[in-house]
């Protein structure tokens, strides 16, 4: 039996929704707990203040989706196609994106803290002012990305590609400045001093 999009204020827990086709659907205030959406089709999907908690979204086709105030908490987006999606005021804490396609991506006022974005292409993406606390950006491509004013405290930047990225005003407390190449990266004075000291320079006050 074909499963249609749930009505507003619905709670679904432990449901297997693999392969559902909710293209161009609109979900409002729906909560999904521990649900599976393997290979689901969500093209141009709109979610408004929904919650996806510990859900599996492996291989979902979510290109062009728009999310407003929606939370994806500790979800997996393995091999998901999220290109052209818009995230506004969302919370993605603890979610993982192995092999996912995110570009092009529009994101504003969104919390990416504790996410795993290892190896993900985020080049040229505007992440200014957004939270990436303890995000794992190992091997990610952030070339030409705008990270001005972002919260990067304790983010993992091991071998992250950052040439042309703008980090000015970002909170980089706890970042390992030995883990990545800063060539071509825009830094503010405080960051430049921190980098120099991390590499043994004696910087006068």
Automatic annotation (TrEMBL):
PANTHER family: BTB_POZ DOMAIN-CONTAINING PROTEIN KCTD9. This is Uncharacterized protein YjbI with pentapeptide repeats. It comes from Modestobacter roseus. The lineage of its organism: Bacteria, Bacillati, Actinomycetota, Actinomycetes, Geodermatophilales.
